[in-house]
Amino acid sequence: MPPITISVPPELIQQAVDKAVAERLQHEPDYRRWWSAADVLDRYGLTQTWLSTHVLDKPRFQRQLDGFAFNYGGRIGWRFEPLAFSEFMRTEFRNIAKEAQS
């Protein structure tokens, strides 16, 4: 069977690549800046109440969060260093979720 050759204009290939890159970047977290509470809620699919009750207000996490999660209060609110907070969530989320279900 002879091979089939399809000719695709370069501009269509570039459009497809641009679209794929844009979609991928849209779903990747931005590690270049500190996250707000809204960023964390969106990334992890949580509510403010759940995050506060099960993570931020838990005394056992205060020492772990110190240094990469800060509450500035007022309009600024919480800020999270993204790499450290992501590592914290990877390490602790399973236990946090289990406790939340109890």
Question: Could you describe the 3D structure shown?
Answer:
The protein has 102 residues and is mainly α. It has helices at 10-27, 37-44, 48-56, 59-65, 82-101; strands at 35-36, 69-71, 78-80. The radius of gyration is 21 Å and the shape is elongated. The N and C termini lie far apart (63 Å).
Category from helices, strands and their pairing: mainly alpha
Poorly predicted segments: none
Biggest sheet record: 3 strands, antiparallel
Q: Please tell me what the overall shape is.
A: elongated
Report the strand count: 3
Strand order of the largest sheet: 1-3-2
Please report the distance between the alpha carbons of the first and last residues.
63 Å
Order of helices and strands: HEHHHEEH
* Residues in β-strands, percent: 5-15%
Determine the fraction of residues in helical runs and give it as a percent range: 55-70%
Q: Estimate the mean pLDDT confidence.
A: 88
Helix-strand layout with pairing:
Blueprint: H1 10-27, E1 35-36, H2 37-44, H3 48-56, H4 59-65, E2 69-71, E3 78-80, H5 82-101
Antiparallel strand pairs: 1-3, 2-3
